[in-house]
Amino acid sequence: MRGKCIVLLFVSALILSAVKSVHSSVIINEILADPPAGSSGDANGDGVRSSKDDEFVELFNMSYEAIDVSNWFLTDASAIRHVFGSNSLVDPLSAFVVFAGGAPAFEGFYWQTSSTDNLGLNNDGDTVSLFDAAGNLIDRVVYGLEAGNDQSIVRSVEGTESGWIKHSDLQNSQGKIYSPGYLVNKKKTVDLDNLPVPEPATILALLIGLGWMYFFKRE
């Protein structure tokens, strides 16, 4: 009986570890807290520059499988700012952008507007956090005055957990001050830590089969 309990605990640990590995593959990749003045500040592409609506947070899925972020939520330092709707998927090695508001009309990547119609990103410093549907922290970014320079801040090597720099300092940025939905400087080598992780259901089926063989051979 003790041996069976150990096996069950081992199976549970493997399943939980697989879920955590998949979830932790989603990172916050770019943040625009300070849209510049004039037409260059129209980050959401709706033809209207707005200091509020053109703010955005870009996520990136570092894994090789789609990740369902339905009911996940984004917060700043003071409140929940966006809850992802049902059937929200972040494609493998792809970006997903949350704009504060407006009427974006982008194709080629997934996006949503804030469910609260406001991201509330402070130019002089804030904390942006991503939580899964169960309230587990997935990623968190604390930024300061560097975000208040009429451009976004972005991972120094996009699509990785590297440090943050101004977008214009990004290699290959060619003077662009933000790039929602696509990466202009991404890691080209394969990261062994982010190789495909089997779905929890697949792992469970495999382990049930192994457990069935173990228990019946013991009978």
Low-confidence runs = 2-21, 189-197
User: Considering DSSP H and I runs of 4 or more, what fraction of the residues is helical?
Assistant: 10-25%
Number of helices: 2
Arrangement of strands in the largest sheet: 8-7-2-1-11-12
- How can the largest sheet be summarized? 6 strands, mixed
- What portion of residues belong to β-strands? 15-25%
Order of helices and strands: HEEEEEEEEEEEEH
Whole-number count of domains? 2
**Span of the ends, CA to CA:** 12 Å
Q: Nearest-angstrom radius of gyration? A: 20 Å
The CATH superfamily of the largest domain bears the name Lamin Tail domain
What is the name of the CATH topology of the largest domain?
A: Immunoglobulin-like
The CATH architecture of the largest domain is: Sandwich
> Average pLDDT value?
84
Query: Which term fits the overall shape?
Result: globular
What is the number of beta strands? Answer: 12
Judged by helices, strands and strand pairing, the structural class is alpha+beta
CATH class group of the largest domain: Mainly Beta
Describe this protein's structure.
With 219 residues, the protein is α+β, with helices and mostly antiparallel strands. It contains two helices and twelve strands; from the N terminus they run αββββββββββββα. The protein has helices at residues 2-23, 200-218; strands spanning 26-32, 56-61, 67-68, 73-75, 80-83, 89-90, 95-99, 110-113, 126-131, 137-143, 153-155, 164-166. The strands form three sheets. It has a six-stranded mixed beta sheet, with no helix packed on it. A four-stranded antiparallel beta sheet has the order 5-4-9-10, with no helix packed on it. A two-stranded antiparallel ribbon has the order 3-6. Helix 1 runs antiparallel to helix 2. The longest helix is centred in the N-terminal third of the chain and has 22 residues, at 2-23.
